């Protein structure tokens, strides 16, 4: 979203669907989680822009933050899911 001609905002709301198949004691089990992951918001500010016919030179750094909105404490019948399967990071 262009707030001004030099400043823009972007947002990411990921939907995460993770599966882990493991073999424990000769039995194959599936552990999974799905849901909204950690939300991120980014900004971009154009510090310098030089336009020429057919090309543009631009310096526009990005910056951003991540909010721990995804669940990082999901459990199934085997206990707490491993961090790699959680929909959120907790950080």
Which keywords apply here?
single chain; 91 residues; mainly beta; 9 strands
Radius of gyration: 21 Å
How many helices? 0
Helicity range of the residues?
A: under 10%
Mean pLDDT: 94
Distance linking N and C termini: 26 Å
- Which stretches of 5+ consecutive residues score pLDDT under 50? none
Give the helix/strand class.
Answer: mainly beta
What do you see in this structure?
By secondary structure, the chain is mostly beta strands. The chain has one domain. 0% of the residues lie in helices and 58% in strands. It contains no helices and nine strands. It has strands spanning 7-12, 15-24, 27-36, 39-45, 48-52, 55-59, 62-67, 75-76, 79-80. The mean pLDDT is 94.
Report a brief summary of the structure.
With 91 residues, the protein is an all-beta fold. It contains no helices and nine strands. It has one domain (7-80).
How do the helices and strands line up, and which of them pair or pack?
Elements: E1 7-12, E2 15-24, E3 27-36, E4 39-45, E5 48-52, E6 55-59, E7 62-67, E8 75-76, E9 79-80
Antiparallel strand pairs: 1-4, 2-3, 4-7, 5-6, 8-9
């Amino acid at each position: 979203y262009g707030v001004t001609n030099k400043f823009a905002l972007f947002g990411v709301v990921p939907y995460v669907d993770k599966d882990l198949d493991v073999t424990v004691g000769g039995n194959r089990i599936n552990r999974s989680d799905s849901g909204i992951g950690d939300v991120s918001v980014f900004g971009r500010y154009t510090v310098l822009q030089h336009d020429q016919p057919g090309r543009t030179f631009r310096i526009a750094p990005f910056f951003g933050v991540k909010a721990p909105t995804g669940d990082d404490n999901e459990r199934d019948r085997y206990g707490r899911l491993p961090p790699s399967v959680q929909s959120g990071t907790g950080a």
